[in-house]
Amino acid sequence: MLTENLTGLARLVRSAVTPALENVALWHERDISHSSVERAIGPDATVTLDFALHRLAGVVERLVVYPENMMRNMNKFRGLVMSQRVLLALTQAGVSREDAYRLVQRNAMKVWEQGADFKEELLKDPEVTAALPPEEIEEKFDLGYHLKHVDTIFRRVFGEG
């Protein structure tokens, strides 16, 4: 309920953007036609944002994370979460976008329909391995690629580390 409330509060704060942008055209004139808007959206947006940030901080402080469950859930897709990286690698290797999509989709459907492993299917597909060597396919399944900036993000957000 708290996070649902946060999405509603975010919409309220974003609703101040349009009137603020409409005031930009009048900045050089500084007449009273836009000051009423500024007097309303300034306090409303900042008070709402302050409340939302405090609520968000409370949610994050009480957040319980189960990394093993997260990995188990990611593994339910048997490698499909890496399909975008494979698709992009194929196009960067010179395969047309249409053919790359066909190759990825053909192997992805084996995962959905037969319970296969996506990476293993790619490694067995001669059209895929003609464009990407096996070690490059393996590299596209490295979860570390997606996590490489996590520490930097945490330092920026929380000022720690």
UniProtKB/TrEMBL annotation:
InterPro entries: AdenyloSucc_lyase_C, L-Aspartase-like
UniProt-listed PANTHER family: ADENYLOSUCCINATE LYASE (PTHR43172:SF1)
GO terms for biological process, alphabetical: 'de novo' AMP biosynthetic process
Keywords: Lyase
Keyword Lyase in record: yes
GO molecular function: (S)-2-(5-amino-1-(5-phospho-D-ribosyl)imidazole-4-carboxamido) succinate lyase (fumarate-forming) activity; N6-(1,2-dicarboxyethyl)AMP AMP-lyase (fumarate-forming) activity
GO CC, any one term: cytosol
Domain Adenylosuccinate lyase C-terminal: 78-158
Name listed for the protein in its UniProt record: Adenylosuccinate lyase
Organism placement in taxonomy: Bacteria, Pseudomonadati, Pseudomonadota, Alphaproteobacteria, Rhodobacterales
EC number: 4.3.2.2
Domain of life: Bacteria
